[in-house]
Each structure stands twice: as structure tokens, then as C-alpha cells.
Amino acid sequence: MEIKKDEFGPEMIVKVYDPKIGMEGFLVVHNTALGPGKGGIRMTPNITEEEVYRLASTMTWKNSLAGIPFGGAKAGIVWNGGTEELKKQFVQSFARSIKLLTPKKYIAGPDVNTGEKEMTWFVDATGNWRSATGKPANLCMKIFGGEGEKCGIPHEFGSTGWGVAQSTKAVADALGLDFNGIKVSIHGFGNVGTFTYKFLTEMGAKVVALADHTGVIHSEDGLDGKKIKDMVREGKHISSYPGLKKLSPEDFWKIPVDIMIPASVTDVINENNKKDIKAKIIIEAANIPMREEIEQELLGKGIFILPDFVANAGGVISSYAEYRGYNPKRMFEIVKNRITKATNSIVKKSLKKKENPRKIAMEIARERVVKAMRNRKEK
Questions:
Q1: Domains of the chain with CATH codes
Q2: The whole model's pTM is what?
């Protein structure tokens, strides 16, 4: 796939390289009509300019649909693993390379292999508190011109998973499904997957299957909440869950469920497994978990799919709350209200028009960006 250039962007593609340590990174600022470009830093071995572009453009529509004053951007650092000290050097080298663009054009945040620790390193290197969100809760600064402090709201609080759970409930309710005991499978058990599991089970759903890079577990009667809680607390992977036979990665997609939630990596639903999926609903907790042509095929089979930039907007709404200096309680309320409102609107219009939910959501998001671009030209 080539990087698509159109009336929305990308406004800027930055490639950086540090020959001293071998750090290679990418920053794509897609569109800043609504505000500075907001998007996390992803650190994986195979990150590419194309993937960062796809993620950046998704952020434009996600922020627009969430109704927050951020544009779309994303960053990626090629990371093959190593010591914590080397990782810090990579993050800070990248931060120094792009610091002239922060926070006016780009505000960083957590993503795959980055969290509150990496965001602390990032703002230390840029020297600007507002250059990143998702910082630790105990990392604070005095509010200029007033009393009190602004503190970080780390994604480790579970804002994205909280939003995914709210959107899942909203879709199920709109489709007339009884949420109590509804069968759910979650692919990916990092920050988003674990909190999605936690909040969904608290809301009455029955999670029957989980998967991560170590394996797949499945129980038709639902997984044991205490065992999962112990596993998460001890930092263990799915394969450590006791008392169940571990399934192959391919088996996950064959498990019949009411709701499937891909919460792992890009293009995890693909040509190899799309035919195996037996779900009524897919909630895209991960960014771009499948290409749009595959999404369209599954929709044609009667599967309702809530797109990523609607379902997983909790993280960026949390980022906005941190940027404004709100406390975590208010953040959770804002995430719930905004995601539920957006989801209900999209599901209702999609069912009424019998159109792809992504198409409906994109129409709303694009309209807001177009209006902002027009207003910017007129100033």
C-alpha cells in the first residue's frame, strides 16, 4: 500500500536516524485542522512508514469523532528489543530529534511497547510537559498562573479498555442482545485487553476465550475471574492459566461467540483466518486490526463491526483530559459519555441506512475536519 495523499494530508512525514545507537524512527502528522496532531509512539521490530501513516490518519478521524480539539498523528520507532537503558536512549534520541514539533504539531502518548515510563523519558528529553500525555500519576507540574497542580493520567488506569467496554455494551444494547452472560472473546491481553476483560466481566459479560502471543485459552462456561486476576497481578501470560488445555493461535478465530474483540496488533484478522470467524459482533479495540476490504467481507456475512476509531477512543479522550488537567474520575466520566454517545449515533444510523458503520463514522468525522479546514483558511 502506498501512502495516500489527499486533501486531508499527510501534512508532514519525518524520518529520523541516530547513527550512534542505530535508532530509526518515523513521525507522520496527518492533519492538524482541529488541533495539534495526537497519537502514540509504537516501538516494534517491523514498524514501517506505511503503518505509521495508516495509524496517523486513523487518529485524525478518531479525535474528530470523539469531539476533542486534537488532530491526527502517530510515531514509530524500530525496536528489536534490548536493555531498559538502550530503550531509554532510543526514546530520548527520537524525542530530541522531533522536539521542535512538540507540542504545536505533535503530542506523543503510549502505544505498543510504550507506557508511562517511556512518556516520562520523552518529556524529559523535550523539556516540555505538554509534549506527551499518558504520564505517571505522580508526575506533576504547577499550573501556570494559578494554584494547584496538573498530574499525569497514565493509560495504565485503563481508559482505553473502559471505553471499549462502554462501546461494546452500547452496540449489544442497540442490537437487542441481552448483555448478562453474553459470550465474548478477546485477542490480545496487554493494557487494552486486560482492562476490557475487567470492565466487561464487571458489567455481566462472560469472557470465554483469551489469547496473547503465548497461546489461547477457552472455557465455554467462562474463564475464572480469580485466576485471571492472579495472573494479571503476577504479570504472567495467558499460557500460565491453570487447568485448561492451551489451544493453537489459529483456534482462537474458530471459537463461536457473540462478540469478538481484537485488541492486539495491526492486521491480526487477515486472509488466513477471516473465514473461520463465528461472531455476531466485532469490536475493534486494536488500531486497524484488519484491512477495509476484509472488514467489508465480514459485514457482508452479517457481522456488525464497530470500527477502531470509535471503539478505542478512550485512550485519546483520556489524553485530552490529562492535557486539560482533569482528575481521573472526571476522565472516566468523559470517556463513557463521549464513546457511548458516538457509538449510539453510529449504530442507529448504520442500521437505519443499512450501511457500513465505518462509512457512517467517517462521514461524521470528515465533515468536522472539513469544516475546521475551511475555517482555518478563512482566518
A1: 12-60+73-152 (3.40.50.10860), 159-315+341-363 (3.40.50.720)
A2: 0.85
